[in-house]
Every structure is written in structure tokens, then in C-alpha cells.
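Re: [ENG-882] Designed sequences occasionally contain unexpected residues at chain ends

Forwarding the minimal case from QA. C-alpha cells:
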């Protein structure tokens, strides 16, 4: 194969696709517009010291009982994991003025999930380490993909040193489908059915934001609480224990208020509302964390488009895009939104990578 396979996107699916291609002896390059690998995997430290733990502001856990791809890969790479803490009572908040209700769930009601030591970034780095040096090129934004009448594929790539063109045997788009359809120019244009299929796939987490409050210890456990909470009052709709196996305690939450409201409030006001809610639910100790980490994915232009800010009425119908037409075998798709199973999860990202690599001819 004269030209390499070009993979656009260095998230989990893009890196895994590259790793599988390299293992088959197929040359490839990974182009990433960001200055980091990982995509929607984002693990950040709570402070600058050597003991600062890493906390996930993107995907956080996996379910080993039925997510076998990620379970097997983590085992293969020798990555340590630990079980997500769920022991204790769950809090349910209906309004700000009413005390939260405590509910002790029956044994087995919460499916066992696992977290990765060092955050999901550990998995990203481990997969990246399977690639030859120089495989991944950061700050490389693909602006256009062109195919000649003879079937030669060429990408226009913008880098800090200027624009350049890269030839490809085929291209794997391992990025959110709406980003691929809206921010890359294709020549000849994508078939109408294919373009519509891409635009109809909402970006997972594209309208969401996540916050992690870090404390010196998981004080809520002494009160018999699991750290889990559900709220109709908000601003967080769903809260979980994000503590590490040893050391600091932490709570993380998903917002119930929409992206537009968060933008109107601004970051400072939004986070103050979060602290007010944590104090209502878990007491005065929750009001003053030692660190407060925040990521609004709806404001991330390499993740979400404006349409992703709209609330999802139901779980999206994910799966491979349809009817590639003249682009068949030249343009392939990976990414969690293109997986028929476990779409939106890390498992879906891995499955999509394997499917895309199998489609390479």
C-alpha cells in the first residue's frame, strides 16, 4: 500500500484504529486538531502537587459485565482499575426548599462499574504508546478531503507552520459525525444520504457539562451516604462519588440546566449554584472544596456544533453512516456515535475502531 491510511482524530477510537492498523503492518498517520490526544477523554489534576489526583471531566467508567472490548483491552495493556463506590444511601431532591430524601437501594440494584487508576487518560496514553513515534500529529486541522477521478485521495491540512497536502490510501474519520460533516469540505461532495446520516447523529456529551468538587476526604460516607444524588432542583441533575481509591474525596455531577442557560449564567455563577446545591445535599463541608474542576463540552468547538446544545428527547439512533456512494472504501467512519452497540460509551468507540479497520481494503 503506497500511501498511508489517514486517521482524522486522536480520541480513543482514532488511536485504537491506528494501533490495529500498525499491528497488521498497514502504515497510517493520525491527524489531531487539538494540542493533545484524547478527544472527549479529559482527566485533570486537582492542584499542582505530586500527589494531586486525576479526575475525569469526560467519560469516567465502564461496565465490565457487558462491555467486553474495553475490559479485554485494559487487561491486555495491564492498566489497574478499581470499582466505583456506590455503598450507602442515595439522595433524591425534588425542590430546594424540601430536605432531600434518603433511599437505600436493594443489593444488586446498582450495576457494578469500574474506573481506571489515573483517570481514563491512562487508557489513552497506553494505547498511544503502542504507536511508533511520530504517528500522531497534533495541531493538524483537516480542512478538506479531495478525491480525483482516478480515486486518489488528498487532504488539505492546516498546521502551525502553514497548510500542506497529504495523500491517503483511505481516510478514517474518527471524530463526531456532525463535526466531520460541517467542518470538512469534501470534493466531490458527500452523497446527500451520507451527509444527512452524519448530521442526524447528535454528539455524545455535546450539550453537556461536568463538574468535579474535590475534598480532603469523602466525608459523606461517614453519614451513610453513597455520594449519589438525583435532583429536580438542580443545577446538577445527577451526582456521583468521584473519590480515588486512597487520598482525596470527590463528587462529580452532570448538569440538568441546558447549555444556553449555562452560557447566560456564566461560569462563576454556574459554579456558585453548584456549591449551593452540594451544601444543601451534603452539608456545610461540601461548600468549600479544595478544587473545583469544570468542563462545558457545548462550548468546545472541536466537539460540538450549535445543534448539540438542544436537549435529546430520546437516546440517539447511533450506527455507521449510510450510503457512502463514490466515497465507499475511501472514506470510513469511527467514533462512538458510529457504533451500533454501546454508542456514546468508551466501548462504542473501541468497537467502531475495530469495524473501521476491518473495512480497510
Amino acid at each position: 500500500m503506497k500511501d498511508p491510511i489517514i486517521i482524522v482524530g486522536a480520541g480513543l477510537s482514532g488511536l485504537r484504529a491506528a494501533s490495529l492498523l500498525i499491528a497488521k503492518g498497514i502504515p497510517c498517520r493520525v491527524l489531531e486538531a487539538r494540542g493533545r490526544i484524547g478527544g472527549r477523554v479529559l482527566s485533570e489534576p486537582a492542584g499542582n502537587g505530586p500527589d494531586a489526583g486525576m479526575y475525569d471531566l469526560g467519560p469516567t467508567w465502564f461496565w465490565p459485565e457487558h462491555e467486553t472490548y474495553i475490559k479485554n483491552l485494559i487487561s491486555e495493556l495491564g492498566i489497574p482499575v478499581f470499582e466505583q463506590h456506590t455503598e450507602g444511601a442515595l439522595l433524591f431532591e425534588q425542590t430546594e426548599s424540601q430536605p432531600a430524601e434518603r433511599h437505600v437501594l436493594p443489593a444488586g440494584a446498582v450495576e457494578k462499574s469500574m474506573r481506571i487508576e489515573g483517570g481514563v487518560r491512562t487508557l489513552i496514553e497506553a494505547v498511544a504508546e503502542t504507536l511508533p513515534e511520530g504517528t500522531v500529529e497534533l495541531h493538524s486541522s483537516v480542512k478538506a478531503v479531495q478525491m480525483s477521478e482516478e480515486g486518489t485521495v488528498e487532504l488539505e491540512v492546516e498546521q502551525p507552520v502553514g497548510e500542506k497536502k497529504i495523500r491517503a490510501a483511505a481516510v478514517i474519520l474518527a471524530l463526531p459525525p456532525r463535526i466531520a460533516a460541517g467542518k470538512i469540505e469534501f470534493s466531490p461532495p458527500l452523497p446527500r444520504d451520507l451527509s444527512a446520516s452524519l448530521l442526524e447523529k447528535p454528539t455524545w456529551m455535546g450539550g453537556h457539562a461536568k463538574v468535579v468538587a474535590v475534598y480532603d476526604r469523602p466525608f459523606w460516607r461517614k453519614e451513610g451516604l453513597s455520594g449519589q444524588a438525583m435532583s429536580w432542583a438542580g443545577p446538577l441533575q445527577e451526582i456521583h462519588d468521584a473519590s480515588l481509591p486512597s487520598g482525596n474525596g470527590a463528587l462529580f455531577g452532570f448538569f440538568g440546566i441546558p447549555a444556553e442557560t449555562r452560557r447566560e449564567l456564566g461560569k462563576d455563577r454556574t459554579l456558585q449554584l453548584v456549591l449551593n446545591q452540594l451544601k444543601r445535599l451534603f452539608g456545610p463541608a461540601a461548600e468549600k472544596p479544595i478544587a473545583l474542576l469544570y468542563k462545558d463540552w457545548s462550548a468546545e468547538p472541536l466537539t460540538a456544533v450549535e445543534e448539540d446544545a438542544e436537549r435529546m428527547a430520546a437516546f440517539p439512533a447511533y450506527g455507521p453512516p449510510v450510503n457512502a456512494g463514490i466515497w465507499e472504501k475511501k472514506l470510513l467512519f469511527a467514533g462512538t456515535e458510529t457504533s451500533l452497540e454501546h454508542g456514546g460509551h468508551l466501548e462504542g468507540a473501541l468497537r467502531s475502531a475495530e469495524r473501521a479497520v476491518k473495512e480497510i481494503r
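QA comment: On inspection the terminal residues look reasonable. The helical segments are 12-23, 68-77, 121-128, 177-183, 192-199, 259-265, 267-282, 346-358. Proposing we downgrade this to a documentation issue.
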